Amino acid sequence: MIIYTPTLHIFNIIHRTTLERALSDFVFGYGNSCLIENGIDRLFINFGGEEYGGSEGLLILDTRENSVVGQIKLGEYTRLLGPTESNDQILIGVGGKQILILDTRSHAILTSLNVGFHALRGIADRDQFLLWVPPGRIQALQLTDYQVLPPLPVTGVYEFSLTPDREHLVILRGEEMRTQTDRISFYDRSREMIVHEQFISDGRHLFTSSDGRIFFIEREANTLLLNEVLL
C-alpha cells in the first residue's frame, strides 16, 4: 500500500501520542510513505527537507513497537517510489537520475540503476514497475532485466492507477497539468491508446481502495468532492 503526504498526519491518526514522540526529532519534507505488512510490519517514509522534492533519505518505523528502527541517508532529492508486488523490495528515486532497489527486511541496497530521469512515484505491475516521470509521463521499468521502456503515448499525466484486471490505466491528467487536471483518461494497454475520457472540473488525487475501486478528489469552486471512477 502506498500512502502520500502529509505522512505525519496519517501516523498521528494511527497512534498520536507515541508516534509524535518517536518522530519528534525528524524534519519531514514533501515525499511518500510505504507500509509493508508481510510479516515485517515496517513503515518506510521520506524525511528531511522542508521544500518540494527536498527529502534526503528514508526513515523506518516498526508499527508494532511504534519506534524508529532504521534511518537511511541517500542524499538530496530522495523519493520513495513504492514496493514491488511481493513487498520484498522497495524502489527509491535518488538525485534525479538514479533508482535504488532496497530489501525491506535487511534494509540493504540491492541494486543501483542509472535511468537518467527523476521518478517521483510508481505502481508495481507483476514483473514491471510503472513510474511517473515529470513533466507528466509514464515509463515502465522491467524488474527482470532492469531495462527502462519508452514512455507511453500519453502526456500531461498527474496521477495514475491500474484497473483490477490490469488491462487499463486510469489516468488523471490535463494539458496544463501543473495548474489544473481536467480529465480522467482510460488507457488500453494492449491497444496502446486512450479509449475513453471523462472530463472533470479540477482533479487533485487518484487512489485505489483495498477492494480495487478507484476514486479521485475533484474541486468545484470551494468544495472538494470524492468521486468513484466507473470502470
Outline type: globular
List the helices and strands in order: EHEEEEEEEEEEEEEEEEEE
Class of the largest domain in CATH? Mainly Beta
Mean pLDDT: 81
Kindly name the structural category.
mainly beta
**Estimated radius of gyration:** 18 Å
| Helical residues, percent | under 10%
Q: Mind telling me which CATH architecture of the largest domain this is?
A: 7 Propeller
Runs in which pLDDT lies below 50 for 5 or more consecutive residues are 1-18
| Biggest sheet architecture | 5 strands, antiparallel
So how many helices? Answer: 1
Bin the strand percentage. Answer: over 45%
Q: State the strand order across the main sheet.
A: 1-2-3-4-5
Q: Using the coordinates shown, work out and report the CATH topology of the largest domain.
A: Methylamine Dehydrogenase, Chain H
Give the tally of structural domains: 2
Describe this structure in words.
The protein is mainly β and about 230 residues long. It folds into two domains: about 1-130, YVTN repeat-like/Quinoprotein amine dehydrogenase (Methylamine Dehydrogenase, Chain H); about 150-230, N-terminal domain of TfIIb. Helix content is about 5%, strand content about 50%. It has one helix and 19 strands. It has one helix spanning about 5-25, and strands at about 1-5, 30-35, 40-45, 55-60, 65-75, 80-85, 90-95, 100-105, 110-115, 120-125, 130-135, 135-140, 155-160, 170-175, 185-190, 195-200, 205-210, 215-220, 225-230. The strands form five sheets. The protein has a five-stranded antiparallel sheet with strand order 1-2-3-4-5, with helices on one face. A hairpin with a 5-residue loop joins strand 6 (about 80-85) and strand 7 (about 90-95). It is globular. Residues about 1-20 have low confidence and may be disordered.
